[in-house]
Specification:
three-stranded antiparallel β-sheet; five-stranded parallel β-sheet; Rossmann fold; alpha/beta
């Protein structure tokens, strides 16, 4: 039976990086609600305007908007053998919606845990290029060209939702609306707690070992 993998954890814990690696390892789609919402913002329109207002303020985009985007994406042919969800679900209503659309997929969930101050340091130092979205970090992965992207020469900016004040608000929202999901998934089979204060390579080695044995 094919698998759906849910990556849980606060903003900045590294779940996006690990989700991409797992999707590549398993040869299934990496489905990032953050990426899809940012694409909607870039396209404009009613959905993009609503999503941008929520994201810039550090609050969650409405369940019905995110549910619709996810449902449309997972119905595509490349997701029939499973997929890795990054940034979804984020509320109990979204988790209930996901359960209804899982169909015949098995569910495996991972929660990556990192201390708050480390999360603030990681996110507030992040810089994104304006052309293709390449991500750098002032401390961990700086561009050799300063405020210019190494890869395409475009300016590097701090996304509005990566400012320290917004990051702290995002964490507050996470603990209020999303952290209860951890207990929800913990009560289900195939839940795994992962220490996120290690190198990405160490974390992926553990994740890979788990999914290969599932």
């Amino acid at each position: 039976m094919s698998r759906v993998i849910v990556m849980l954890g606060p903003p900045g814990c590294g779940k996006g990086t690990q989700a991409k690696k797992l999707a590549s390892h398993l040869n299934v789609p990496h489905i990032s609600t953050g990426d899809m919402l940012r694409e909607a913002v870039a396209r404009g329109g009613e959905l993009g305007v609503k999503a941008k207002a929520s994201m810039d303020a550090g609050v969650l985009v409405a369940d019905r908007v995110v549910d619709a985007i996810v449902q449309e994406r997972v119905a595509q042919a490349d997701a029939c053998n499973g997929y890795v969800l990054d940034g979804y679900p984020r509320t109990m209503k979204q988790a209930e919606f996901l359960q209804r659309i899982l169909d015949k997929h098995d569910l495996v969930s991972f929660n990556i845990q990192v201390e708050d101050e480390e999360l603030v340091r990681r996110l507030s130092g992040r810089r994104t290029c304006t052309a293709a979205g390449h991500i750098f970090h002032l401390q961990f992965n700086p561009s050799t060209r300063g405020n210019v992207c190494d890869k395409d020469g475009s300016p590097l900016i701090q996304r509005p939702d990566d400012g320290e004040e917004v990051v702290r608000k995002r964490l507050s929202v996470y603990y209020k609306d999303t952290a209860p999901l951890v207990e929800h998934f913990r009560s289900r089979p195939r839940f795994h707690q992962i220490a996120g204060n290690r190198s990405p390579e160490e974390i992926f080695k553990e994740l890979q070992s788990i999914v290969d044995q599932e």
